[in-house]
Amino acid sequence: MNQQTIQEENKANVKAKRYLNYIAGDWVPSVSERFTVNINPATGEVLGEVPQSTKEDIEKAVLAAKQAQKSWRLVPAPERADVLYEVARLLKEKKEDLSHILTSEMGKVISEARGEVQEAIDMAYYMAGEGRRLFGDTVPSELRNKFAMSVRVPVGVAGLITPWNFPIAIASWKSLPALVAGNAVVWKPATETPFMAAEFAKIYEEAGLPKGLLNVVFGSGGEVGNAIVEHPDVDLVSFTGSNEVGRKINERAGSLLKRTSLEMGGKNAVTVLEDADIDLAVDGIIWSAFGTAGQRCTACSRVIVHEAVKEQLETKLLERVAELKIGDGLDEEVNIGPVINQSALQQIDEYVKTGVKEGAKLLCGGKILAEDGFEKGNYYAPTIFTDVSPDMTIAKEEIFGPVTSIIAVKTLEEAIEINNSVEFGLSSSIFSRDVNRVFQAMRDLDTGIVYVNAGTTGAEIHLPFGGTKGTGNGHRDSGVAALDVYTEWKSIYVDYSGTLQRAQIDNK
After folding, report:
1. Set 119, 263, 314, 398: catalytic member
2. What span, in angstroms and rounded, lies between the C-alpha atoms of 490 and 100?
3. Candidates 3.40.50.2300, 3.30.1490.120, 3.20.20.140, 3.40.605.10; CATH matching 62-264+472-490
4. Which CA distances in Å does 438 have to 170, 271, 435, 454?
5. pLDDT tens figures, 296-313
6. pLDDT higher than threshold 70 for residue 20
7. Residue 263 annotated in active site
8. Among the options 297, 300, 314, 398, which is catalytic?
């Protein structure tokens, strides 16, 4: 029985839960009265149904957000932060249940799901702390009896469009700073992972967030996403997803003079020099390339290795890949879960076929797993190519699956040049014991994130997350830098001299 047949049978016999939109503090159906099923990628099981909303639903959500933000912006930031502290507490209390929901609808193994929920917990505590640190500046005026300062003020209504691969972590990166800064939110979660969005909204509701400040509207990017971008009362759009969609959002929002924060693709590389700890490098590569089945924007899609240790590295990688257990992520012993859906499965396979056609040597994997217990899910064998040249398709384009390519080099300088040759600039890594070359790499690797003696994944929430070139448009999620997305700067001058002072004219 093929995947399509299984899903059609499940759809005809839906007995699972049905979620609604969350608008103005109420759970309401879409005006379309249309629903779509949510599928467990590991088993093909239908988990439930979610609305396919319309522009009219977005109109209602934006109206609620705009009204709620008028009073929320006047609430002192430390008081706004009290809600975030309660969000953090509830996330922590519900961590295990949330982790199981996450694995069921997204597919990542349960240990990774727990880590992702923990990231949301950490982000909630961190951004709650920013309620007392929304710092501006006080500076000396150039004139007597005059006071000068700058303060942060909220932007207004933030439209959030988030992906399926980190359905609660990335949502926390965006919604928490937006709210603590005094904004309201209209959020379109990914269609593949709606239940995590609904559970997150319930936590905000339970934490006492006033009605209308968080609105969740389910639906397609073409209809709901575009409606968010186009709406005149949405003041900024924060998007994480593909480069293709991000470019379109930026073009349209730019024509509307609307702020955008974009975090898009990556083609990340681990560089292994001849003096590296090879076993440690193997650990980093396995985790970065095959964790989350390669479905991370920071995944290690390339391994740039010095020719002197290439063969040794390949041997150890093959030994480790052979030990990996593939299956349903709810099994505590599984290392690699499914990819998100059949479309992704086919796209990964097409990239692998292209790699073979262009002359790369397939070391392992390279196939869809559809037998021996894998029939009902979306499983792809962990895949390693070698003898890859930098101009091959698999060395340039984001695959978003458990596939990595080994490229041999003779020098650090060549490795850096190859690392920087792709259109993306999110994450990079170098394994070396030579402090001089490490610092050279830290300086010259053109990515927003650089790891030393670690893989390309593992960002922490108190530092900026984002990249250069085609990865984004200069803004960052996480850390204090996230506040720059969700606030405007206001400069204030208080003249208590009792006379008109004309700044540069009168102080010379």
Report:
1. 263
2. 44
3. 3.40.605.10
4. 30, 11, 5, 12
5. 999 999 999 999 999 999
6. yes
7. yes
8. 297
